[in-house]
Amino acid sequence: MFALVVHDADRPPWRKAFAIRDCRIGAALDNDLVLDGTRRVSGVHARLVLKDGKYILVDMKSGSGTWVNNCKLNAPRVVKETDEIVIGELRIQIVTLAYEELVGRPLVARDRAEAELLAAIDGGDHASRLVYADWLEGHGDHPHAELLRLQHALDGQTDEAVIDAHTARMRELAASIDVPWRARLAKLPIENCPQFAFKCPQQWSELAPTSVEGERFCGSCRKTVYYCATIDEARQRAGDGSCVAIDLASPRWHGDMEPPFGERVCEACDLDVGVGLRDCPRCGARIVAEMMMVGELA
How far apart are CA 215 and CA 86, in angstroms? Predict the structure, then answer.
């Protein structure tokens, strides 16, 4: 997980967080990081690739070039957080983020209109979601707008093919959207609820906000529900008996929220794997150590 901080002489620095490994940068609206084309930024200006824990910057034959520490980029180059990247008239800074720590960060509205729309949505005004989508699109924020509309399109949907297609697209969009925004606007099922044997009828978006970001209150079971950025965090919370909503961009696998919790852990990457898998879904290592339960194999 990383963020790109954009420094522009005419406005305060702003940033966008990513959970992807190949980030396209440029003025075209389908880039992952969209920059102002009037700042000598080409349509597809550069790419930042995360590989083996290293950031590799590539210029895409841009008009004004991509610069690192005052040197023009003529070939792919490994860059660090301390390097100064210049694209057009903008300075870009890389910041590595701990994925989990973003969940507790509040979403800051850009202006009064956005703050009012967010407050209306928090208050249960579902129609404001589409109004907000229009507002976002009007401000050039197409991924956020599309995600909201896809969530709305899934309400009452029963066609499994449509559900799978929309969900796949939402996961793709979510990878380049800040976690605080996803946590505030997400329509996610509640998992590990002991009150319902099969599926809790509540959604994260329907629960009452609390004073703590990433925590909401369920009036049905009178419990706090936690928004979890990863399966690791979700399984830990579930092991404590808590209800959870799991971030849309988190990798999932079949049976990932089934108990037992904390008993089949990958020795290579420390992931709580759970039941049903022989290989770790994160690093691929074979799960060789299986703890013995009473009279049976875990």
Answer: 39
* 234-256: average pLDDT: 87
pLDDT at site 46: 96
Assigned token pair, 187? 């329509």
Does residue 211 sit within a domain? no
Domain assignment present for residue 129? The answer is yes
CB atoms within 10 A of CB 82: 8
Q: Which amino acid is at 139?
A: H
Residue at 269 is within a domain:
yes
The answer on 69 and 29 residing in a single domain is yes
Q: d(Cα 152, Cα 160) in Å, to the nearest integer? A: 16
Residues 93 and 126 in one domain: no
HSE-up (13 A, CA, CB side) for residue 170? 22
21 CB-side CA count, 13 A: 5
Q: Which domain holds residue 174?
A: 112-185
Q: Domain end: 57, 72, 97, which one?
A: 97
Domain assignment present for residue 106? The answer is no
Token pair for 167:
């969900």
- Of 185, 203, 227, which closes a domain? 185
Number of residues in the chain: 298
Query: What's the burial of 104, exposed, middle or buried (CB within 10 Å: 0-12/13-18/19+)?
Result: middle
pTM: 0.62
Residue with structure tokens 């599926």?
199
Residues 6+ apart with CB under 8 A from 159: none
Question: Are 82 and 154 in a shared domain?
Answer: no
Q: Give the pLDDT confidence of 53-99 residue by residue, as tens digits.
A: 889 999 999 999 999 999 999 999 999 999 999 999 999 999 886 65
